[in-house]
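Quick one, tokens below. Sequence please?
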């Protein structure tokens, strides 16, 4: 299926399989089967992986190492993103939208997304939706970050009403995405700073947790086969029991620079949660040689993969300041160390 040459070569992976048909691993396991196995807390034939690149870096990397092909196809990433089409503009600015003017894509957009999911499934690949800002992040977009935090104290009643409007919109959008048949529904909120939470656990439980729980419940009712991943940049440890209580299946990003002890988290919560990420982008990929990247990818696999429940990936998207050779080093590492001990 894939031939691996010297890592010094400009192109070190050559795929012979037709990309329109299912690509199987050495044991006849497709990527989608592999993802389903590890998300059931079991070891598969090997550890699945995924790399996300900024568009500018993606173009450079694909030209350098993939002969112009998309890196996710060329390097056999196990899980691919599918999105609604480009006509949908997310409310990223509180100057552009109001709580009564939240956009919803056309039904044709979801129909296209469903076709894209089906195409990936034919190829044996798992599908997920790209992350879009969650309830809290949308509140900060509509109100401004300081106002969104202060209003929980200064106007709790009004804040609850505003959050409900945003949450109901988020739920409708997520349910429509879930009904396309995706394998992983990626939701979340950036609730963590570099060393602590942005708000207290008590505030989270009072204002946002009920809506996260309702969103998960509605998504799983719409698609009982879907697994729900919760994205949270920064520190997240203090909220993990709450996320499990909400019905979250996967924690993403598990950023190691942000005071998240991966050993503790795997030991304490690995029976209830799967993990996606866990390799620091800012501490591993930026300003480091490829050999360092390879060692840290190996470390993450050794810490998080045993017993299943791990998708190997950097904890964030790779930005244009990341050297392309360090992206290549990630793929070299996963293809060398992805097999369970």
């Amino acid at each position: 299926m894939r031939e691996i040459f010297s890592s010094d070569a400009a192109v070190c992976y050559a795929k012979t399989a037709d990309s329109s048909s299912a690509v199987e691993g050495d044991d006849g396991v497709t990527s989608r089967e592999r993802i389903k196995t590890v998300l059931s807390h079991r070891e598969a034939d090997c550890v699945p992986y995924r790399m996300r690149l900024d568009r500018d870096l993606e173009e450079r990397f694909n030209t350098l190492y993939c002969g112009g092909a998309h890196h996710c196809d060329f390097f056999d990433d196990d899980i691919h993103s599918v999105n609604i089409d480009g006509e949908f503009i997310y409310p990223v600015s509180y100057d552009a939208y109001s709580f009564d003017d939240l956009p919803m894509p056309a039904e044709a957009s979801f129909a296209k997304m469903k076709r894209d999911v089906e195409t990936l499934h034919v190829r044996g690949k798992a599908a997920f939706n790209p992350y879009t800002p969650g309830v809290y992040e949308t509140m900060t977009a509509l109100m401004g970050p300081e106002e969104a935090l202060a209003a929980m104290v200064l106007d709790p009643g009004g804040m609850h009403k505003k959050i409900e409007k945003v949450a109901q919109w988020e739920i409708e959008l997520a349910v429509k995405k879930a009904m396309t048949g995706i394998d992983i529904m990626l939701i979340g909120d950036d609730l963590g700073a570099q060393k602590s939470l942005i708000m207290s656990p008590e505030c989270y439980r009072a204002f946002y947790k009920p809506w996260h729980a309702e969103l998960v419940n509605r998504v799983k009712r719409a698609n009982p086969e879907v697994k729900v991943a919760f994205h949270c940049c920064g520190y997240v440890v203090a909220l993990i029991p709450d996320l499990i209580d909400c019905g979250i299946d996967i924690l993403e990003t598990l950023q190691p620079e942000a005071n998240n002890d991966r050993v503790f988290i795997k030991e304490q919560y690995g029976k209830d949660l799967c993990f996606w990420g866990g390799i620091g982008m800012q501490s591993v990929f930026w300003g480091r040689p490829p050999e360092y990247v390879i060692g840290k990818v190996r470390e993450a696999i050794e810490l998080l993969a045993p017993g299943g429940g791990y998708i190997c990936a950097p904890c964030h998207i790779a930005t244009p300041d990341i050297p392309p050779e360090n992206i290549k080093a990630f793929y070299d590492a996963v293809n060398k160390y992805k097999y369970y001990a």
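The CA atoms of residues 186 and 207 lie 21 Å apart. The radius of gyration is 20 Å.
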